[in-house]
Amino acid sequence: MTNNSEATVQGVGISLLPCFIAAPYIEKGMLTPLLTDYSLPEHSIYAVYPNRHYLPHKTRMAIDFLFERLNPKSEYGQRYEINYYASR
């Protein structure tokens, strides 16, 4: 078992990948979802910074980018939700 998508695509074994990483490979037929009715516990990610008033713009942009990509309620997150794989 690995978390390396490149190794998995090359046939090294199976992996546990985030939906947003695995989805493009699945869409191209390079990976096949396994255990689609099994779900992992949810995890949280926190952005910790000293003071919002002095937050650099590039830091705010990075936080917004991660929120969009990792938020299951965003358009991007809903597209690559685990139910997406189960319905295929």
Structure, described:
- It is a single chain.
- This protein is mainly α.
- It has one domain.
- 43% of the residues lie in helices and 0% in strands.
- It has five helices and no strands.
- It has helices at residues 5-9, 19-27, 57-70, 75-79, 82-86.
- The model is unreliable at 82-88 (pLDDT under 50).
DSSP helix fraction: 40-55%
What's the N-to-C terminus distance? 23 Å
SS summary, helix count: 5
Radius of gyration: 16 Å
The percent range for strand residues is under 5%
Number of DSSP E strands? 0
How many structural domains are formed by the residues?
1
- Which consecutive residue ranges, at least 5 long each, have pLDDT under 50? 82-88
Give the gist of this structure:
Helices cover 43% and strands 0% of the residues.
